[in-house]
Amino acid sequence: MLTRRIIPCLDVTDGRVVKGIRFAGLRDMGDPAALAAEYASQGADEIIILDISATTSLRATAADVVSRCRAALSIPLTVGGGVRSIDDASRLLDRGADRVCVNSAAVERPGLITELADRYGTQCVVVAADARRSSAFCWTILTRSGQLDTGLDAVRWARKAGELGAGEMLLTSWDRDGTRDGYDLELLRAVCGATRIPVVASGGAATVRHMKDAFDAGADAVLAASIFHEGVKSVGAIKQALSGFGVEVRL
Amino acid sequence: MRALESSGLGDAIRSRVSAGRPLLAICLGLQLLCEESEESPGVKGLGLLSTVVTRFPAHARTPQLGWNLVEPSRPEGLVGPGYAYFANSFKIDSAPPGWSPSWADHAGRFVAAIERGPVLACQFHPELSGAWGLRVLMAWARAAARGTEVTC
Questions:
Q1: Is B71 a catalytic site residue?
Q2: How far apart (Å, rounded) are the C-alpha atoms in residues B103 and B54?
Q3: How many CB atoms within 10 Å of residue B111?
């Protein structure tokens, strides 16, 4: 049986891993390649690097970060942040990314998803979506690092992304990101029920219980950052605990 | 397939496999060895494995992305038991006579890898399957080195 994945996420800018709440108050968390290798040795199933650089000059270091992480890893590496074209994706794949993440550009031009899938295969294309709750059971998609509310319904977007050729959705709850209140389970249930493609839960994880709840809600993988960066728990300890809860993980 | 056939690589692969010379095929590489695929109806594969590539059933999360348990059909093969990383929407369900399969399960049993001497075709990515994947690659490399001594 396919196991559930634990994915440490490295938010990177200017060649360093940083962490903040809703992109504010960034703190330095260390070297990307060293952290990626450490998490892989602890049993991480995959590593995601998101380049959150605000400017092109800071972004120039991202390709180098991908190369260094690839050299340090023998598990899958997904890279995103600022990918707006086939050329952007190719540069990251050439440097050793296994899959690329698209966010704002895919919302603004959904055909990009199909172009990437036709060129590299659906398994290579991850659509990242930042969803904010707008009413009781309704979420809308934010773009441009949360600055723009597109009004696009998150559940409809997930379904459409899958139809266009996305091979996975990285679903971040804007309301929960960085809060430690747990994943938005209602959002997860709604999206997982609407699409066939795998869904990665993101935003709000602080405990193993949060992860177990996300898997019960239908998530195929969970993404977390602070819980690992701050050394609260190792990836291995989390997987052991999840296994104890009856979640199938790779140990 | 068009690129493989027009460049002559298709025939090169066919003659290697027929002669039992070392070959490592990964992911789509395994599927290209087959007769045909639901992914590209009407296109002929290399025809080295007499089986057809099919899509995972509608109720399965597709693509299959992540780590799945691989169980070899015989213990002395190149692929040992363990977790492998997969990224595929299509697969084969049976092994032609003369080939040894390893199995995994995603909404039903499918072929995780298939081998015959130094010819190894993996549906999973050994290069992304951590220490276990490295052991698969080392086992194949050793078999390939032995095969080369015999055939050269």
A1: no
A2: 16
A3: 22
Total domains, chain A: 1
Q: Please answer yes or no on whether B130 and A74 come within 8 Å at the CB atom.
A: yes
In the set A11, A45, A51, A177, the catalytic residue is A11
Q: Examine residue A251 and state whether it is found in any structural domain, yes or no.
A: no
B28–A121 CB contact, under 8 Å: yes
Whether this model's ipTM surpasses 0.85 comes out as yes
Can B127 be counted among the known catalytic residues?
yes
Q: Residue A56 sits in a domain of what CATH number?
A: 3.20.20.70
Going along chain B from its start, the domains and CATH numbers come out as: 2-146 (3.40.50.880)
Residues A197, B80: Cα–Cα separation, whole Å: 29
B134 chain-A contacts, CB cut-off 8 A: 74
Encode pLDDT of B113-130 as tens digits. Answer: 999 999 999 999 999 999
Q: What is the dihedral of CA A77, A82, A84, A89, to 10 degrees?
A: -20
A112 — phi, psi (to 5°)?
Answer: -60, -40
Q: Is the pLDDT of residue A135 over 70?
A: yes
On whether residue A250 sits in a domain, the answer given is no
- pLDDT for residue A247: 98
Pick the more confident residue, A215 or A137.
A215
**Residue B68: its chain A contacts at CB < 8 A?**
1-3
- Distance between CA atoms of residues A97 and A147, nearest Å: 27
